Amino acid sequence: MSTPEPASAPELMLDYGRGRARFALAKLRLAARSFRTGWGIFMESKVGMLALFIIIVFALMALSHPILMATVWDRETYDPVTGYAFDQVEQPAPPSLKHPLGTDPLGRDVLSQLLYSTRSEFVLGITAAVVTVGIATVVGAIAAYFGGILDSFFMRLADLIIALPAISLLIVLSALFNLNLFYLALIIGLLGGFGGTAIILKSQALTIRVKPFIEAARVAGGGHFHIIFVHIVPHLLPLSLLYMMFTVTSAIFAEAVLSFLGLLDLRMSWGIMIHTANTGGYLLGGTRYWWLIVPAGASITFLCSAFYLAGRALDEVVNPRLRRRDD
Amino acid sequence: MTGYLLRRLGQMGLTLFLIITLTFFLVQAQPGDYASFYVLNPDLPPDVKEKIRAAFGLDKPVWQQYLIHLKNIFTGNFGVSFGHFPRPVLDVLAERVPRTLVLFLTATTASFYLGFFLGKAIAWRRGGLFEYTATISGATLFTAFTPAFALMMIWIFAFRLGWFPVGKFLDPIVWRGTEVSANYVFGNMLLSAAAFIVFAFVVMLLLSRFRRSLPSLVAVPILLAGVLLALLFWSLSGMGTLALDILRHMVLPVATLTLISFAGTMLLTRNSMLETIREDYVMAARAKGLPEKQVRDRHAARNALLPVITSLVYSLIFAIDGSVIIEGVFSWPGTGLTLLSAVRSEDLPLVMGAMLFIGILSLLAHAIVDVLYVYLDPRIRYQ
Amino acid sequence: MITGPVLKVDDLSLTYQIRQGEVRAVQDVSFELARGQSLGLVGESGCGKSSVANCLMGLLPDNARVTRGQVILEGHDLLQLNEEELRKYRWRRIAMVFQAAMNVLDPVYRVGQQIVEAIEAHGFDLSDAEARERVADLFRRVGLEPQLMDRYPHEFSGGMRQRAVIAMALSCDPSVIIADEPTTALDVIIQDRILRELKSIQNDRDMAVIYITHDIAVVAEVTDLVAVMYAGRLVELGPTAEVLGSPLHPYTSGLMSSFPSVSGEKRPLTVLSGEPPNLVNPPSGCPFHPRCESATEQCRSEFPPRALRNDHWAACWHPLDKTNSTAG
Question: For testing the chain B interface, which of A157, A167, A168 should be mutated: the one with the most B CBs within 10 Å?
Answer without folding.
Answer: A168
